[in-house]
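Q: Got one fold?
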Amino acid sequence: MTDSTFPKISVVTVSYNQGQFIEKNIESVLSQGYPNFEHIIVDGGSTDSTLDILRKYPHLKWTSAKDDGQSDALNKGFSRATGDIIAWLNSDDWYAEGAFHVIAEALKDYPVVLGKAAQTDKEGNVVTIVENPPRSFYDLARYWIPYAWVAQTSVFFRRSLLEEVRRSDGNYLDQDLFFTMDLDLWFRMAMRYPFVRYIDQVLSFFRIYDENKTGARPQATQRECSRVYRRHMNGLNPTERQLSYIMPMREPSEISKETFKSLTKQTCIDFDIFIIDYAADREMSKFVHEFSLDLSEAIPQITVRYAKAALPNEFSAFTTGVQKAVSPIVGFLQPGDTLDENASHRALHQFALDTVGLMIPTIQGGMAQLNTFFQQSGELNLPGFLTSSYFYPNIYARRLALLELETFRHPNSPAHSLKELLLRLIYKGWSIQGSDTVIVHPTTRNYSMEVSQWQTERDRIILEVLKTLKREFEADPFGLTRAKARDPRPLLESLSHITGVL
């Protein structure tokens, strides 16, 4: 007997020749003891024992006919669902006892909830407990790290949210996706409502074995994840070009013409030039703006943009440029810097890997031999970099990664800003890479002020950077799970001898 005081839960299961598993699936729903539910099974025309099993359960709402794959079958199931809450349970998976009462309570005032899940082998023996912790849209994006994957069987959502994120073609799921239709749905949901409502108990069990899709084709699954990742990352803002060169400018200068000349000689011109005005007075800002307009007329094949920095400071100008850029990749330049003609092509090639959050190019001459900071494995030598006297990188970075971390948070201290940014990027799960050839020729610059600050404040800066990382680790709801894959504590301990115990 149903009870209207309980929100109705619709369980959608798609199946094809899963007779060996589906009865456990059905029984796990029945045994919830929840008074208001429906179980919809969309079968793809099974030829094994599946249909005989389905006929044994009169409460089921089921059909059996050929479909166009899992996404098509799920779309049909979601369309037939009449519940307030949607639950999606694959035919070889099952629910833990008492899950429905808990999730119904959790969804009273928030549209999506997730909980722990147990991964099992084919026989149903538990292999591991998947924490499935709360996460932001940005956390969801790092599909290449095991802890970022969402265990789909323990995600429940209100029907109203499913309708809110419905695709423009009228479907709930993308029928062109074979493995990752759920990831695409989570991105659409998380963009509106972060996955922050959490139930700290195992709600479901899911099998991973050689014959099921994810178990049989892990590399193909990862490649499809990349497709989904790119569509949503590029969809965060309008993309006009693939790369934006951000150049802070406080006054027009002759030396900047050399920079623009080298940009016009790039073999790849899928970029724009973004001049960020950080002049201290209004009159000089007017000159900088006029300069950018003149430049736009002089090189019509390249878009030139202009914006005013939030503060009259170079590193603040970089941060403003990142916030306003309309490209997924950004590169930082100074007036007078020049680039090898293949620099843009090489940078974009590096970021063809979704995992790369930042690239430190090899820079010719001076104090910027950053290739010495990279070990043979390609990993950044963190102690070496953190204690070095390097201040100004001509970095290339993924805009998404910089937005999440607010780019440079200490604009008056280049060393502090740069070192904190790189450590936080690594902690969040992004890869930092170097280039194996010289691509940037920096302008001559007097670093005496930065050198003096570093010599007098090095220990304080390093301590503050490490404390920041430690605070973020302890405050981040995703941090405890992240720690199992990328624990920052050994790094903190290995570096703490520089300034004493944190």
Summary: Residues 210 and 217 are 9 Å apart (CA to CA).
